[in-house]
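Please predict the structure of the following assembly.
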Amino acid sequence: MPRAARRPAPAAPAVLERARELTRPALAEAVGGLHPWIAEMAAYGLGWADPAGTPDPGGSEGKGVRQALAVLGAEAVGADARDAVPGAVAVELVHTFSLLHDDIMDADALRRQRPAVWKAYGTGPAVLAGDALHAQAVSVLAEAPGRHTGAAVRHLCGTLNALVSGQAEDLRFEQRPWHGPGAVAPEEYRAMAERKTGSLLGCALALGAVLGGAPERTVTALDRAGRHLGLAFQAVDDILGIWGDPAVTGKPVHADLRRSKKTYPVLVALAGGGETARALAPLLSSSRPVDAASAELVAALVEESGGRAATRDEARRHLDTARRALRDTPLAHPAARELDALFTYLLDRTW
Amino acid sequence: MPRAARRPAPAAPAVLERARELTRPALAEAVGGLHPWIAEMAAYGLGWADPAGTPDPGGSEGKGVRQALAVLGAEAVGADARDAVPGAVAVELVHTFSLLHDDIMDADALRRQRPAVWKAYGTGPAVLAGDALHAQAVSVLAEAPGRHTGAAVRHLCGTLNALVSGQAEDLRFEQRPWHGPGAVAPEEYRAMAERKTGSLLGCALALGAVLGGAPERTVTALDRAGRHLGLAFQAVDDILGIWGDPAVTGKPVHADLRRSKKTYPVLVALAGGGETARALAPLLSSSRPVDAASAELVAALVEESGGRAATRDEARRHLDTARRALRDTPLAHPAARELDALFTYLLDRTW
């Protein structure tokens, strides 16, 4: 991302590390409180251990974006970072639960370049481990001390409903035609992505603020910032899913096209209705599996018809909106600056 | 059950019907608030509709035991039945969620003599529908008005953790040997059944009492009564799983034996260590699938070694303990009498 490259944000990795250190003991306690077999699957899903239970210190763990947003959300409203910890644990557990179950639903065999939990342990056990993480997420938050627990739990519940509903839309899109009546409009895709990806990032920031005792107006603004961050993130993911370097993404070239996944670049290209869109439609609607050659052709046509550029614009627009939502809200420093740096850093991938 | 047969409890079906009528609008609203596709799967899972979405008024709906326990829990502590409704909705949604996911994990293709949700809609969609019901259950309770919401949510969270942990144990039992070191002891089976079956029945009663503002002592007593009811229920189910009449149970003859399911009658027979137990062990441990003839032989040996009688005793003992827990707690009438009648009625099956 050119702008990010010109303006490095050296603080962001340190912010992620600080949030991880602050959250880790409570997160480990929440996982340790599960049935031992489920705790083993959870540790694998979190990238803490390999399937034999051996600690895996390198590489497989996520960045912990959600816990960092929760911590910064509390600090940005002038509260102590420790107030955010139950919220940080809850959003990390919900994220892990949703990865476990989404990988089953999407038949994704790989996650962070390792076998997905359902591949490593079986579908039934992965369903169960996801359920346990889901339950534990709510439990940790419901048991949090302080006056704001009820509001925090209600916020998380709304997010869980949104996540599920977004995933339902995403699965239903697979059944719909690529073009003609019933085709998925780019705006429908955006609404799905806001629920499926944006809502949990918004929730992370909002939970930090709620647990920090912020007024509703501030909570809403932070939630909105996180949602737009999520939309920007999804747009970048969609670009990388087609044009990403396999060595970097860990996915095959043209991965989303090979899987006939309906993503923003293709939908917006088709919605444009130009000549290239008319050439795209029959290629996508073919009942044959998408081979390497036709995936390459589809990628070229989507790019030629402006699908890639429109998705870049989409990502930039949502990142701008997210940063503006932060700027327009009275927030405490240095958390506000760290949030801005983190937002930029997270989108700073080669796309 | 001889005692129940001698003392009919005509009130119980009316109690179930009253609780259903009271709970149904809120339950329908909770289901209606889900994504339409998920709502369709939920309506099927609840026995309200067939897979085409056509209302199914007959036969497939559960008895609604859990909602009735929640309603009677509130009335038994002198509160208005309406106070219990969010709790009643929550436990029915949790029950439905757990059936959907357990059927996936146990590869059970039939539920109430219809295809299980995962058979009718696919595994991925059934995982998602279960997640949605799980989230909505907590949400309905967290949004309930009144001073007792936080305590109710915490109670439900504890139950969800117990349910998952019980299901984990049940799945792990499958991997353990039938006899020798590492065999599942009857007490381990009982602890699993208390979590998997007892905890939600206890929670239903407890939630009614919590939402009705009962003191902790009363909540604990009602929770305990429900847990023992669940253990009695599970013992009866285990008897019916081996010796039940297929025309009544809707399952094949010797169903649990054909599936090599570790249940109380067999575990207690093996733990007895007598001559018949020694004859049982090699039959059960064979790597060959259990055919009709060997299932019949196993059933006879389990009965001969006292497994069936011990399980009957187990059921009676837990029902007695459950009824005593009710009697020993100061509860309001007529709810206390209706609870006693309902407990007896629920165990009044031919076993």
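Confidence is low (pLDDT under 50) at residues 1-9 of chain B. Strands of chain B lie at 110-111, 114-115.
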